[in-house]
Amino acid sequence: MTSIVALVVGGTPEPWESLGFAKLSTEGMRTLFSLVDVQLVVDTSREVGSVDWQLGEEPFAGPQGNIGCLGVDHVVWRTNDLDATCDEVTRLTGAPRKRVRDAGNGMSQGFHRVDNVVVEVVAGGETVERPHLWGFVVNVADLDAVCAFAGPDVVGAPKAATQEGRRIATARSGAGLGVPFALMDVQ
After folding, report:
1. Domain 3-184: what homologous superfamily?
2. Minimal CA–CA distance to 28: which of 43, 6, 47?
3. pLDDT tens digit sequence for 52-87
4. Threshold 0.90, pTM exceeds
5. Where are the domains of the chain?
6. What b/e readout covers 75-100, taking b as 16+ CB neighbours within 10 angstroms?
7. Cα–Cα–Cα angle for 23, 25, 27, nearest 5°?
8. Strand 97-104 and strand 69-79: pairing?
9. 106, exposed or middle or buried, with CB in 10 Å at 0-12, 13-18, 19+?
C-alpha cells in the first residue's frame, strides 16, 4: 500500500523545532522531524513556502515530540481542475477519490485516503499557476496546551473545525514556518 512517508518543505528548521516537533537529525541542508506517521523534511535549499511529498511502501513511525503530535490529519492540494488533479492523486497513490464536497463561494473539495492520511484537493477561489501541494494539518493530543506553549503570535486561538466536534488552530505567518499549517485536536 502506498503511504505518504515524508512532507518536504522549504525554509529553516528553527521554527519547527521551537514549536516542539521531535528533531530526528540534520543532514547537510535537510533537517528531519517526526510527525509520528510521516517524516517532515525541512530543506534550506528549497524555496520558502514550497511543499512536496514523498510516497513509499514503508510507512514512517516516529516520536511525538514536545508538541504531542499524533500524526498527519490531512494534506491540501490547490488546483484549478478538481477532476484532473484527483485523477493524478489516484494515479500516484492508488487511492480513489472518496467524495466531493461543495465548500461554498465557488470552491469544491475532493477527498482521498492515502493509508492513514487524508488528501484534500481544493479547486476554486483564486486561480493557481499549477496544481501543487499547498499545506498540511497535524493532530495533537492537547490543542490548548500546544497553543499556550506556542503563544498567540505563533498559533491562533482554536476554533471549530469543519469536522464535527473537532477544533483547529492555524499557524500565523509570523511563526516562520513558511507554509500553511494547522493543528487539530482529536476529540
Report:
1. 2,3-Dihydroxybiphenyl 1,2-Dioxygenase, domain 1 (3.10.180.10)
2. 43
3. 999 999 888 999 998 899 999 999 999 999 999 999
4. yes
5. 3-184
6. bbbbbeebeebbeebbeebebebeee
7. 140
8. unpaired
9. exposed
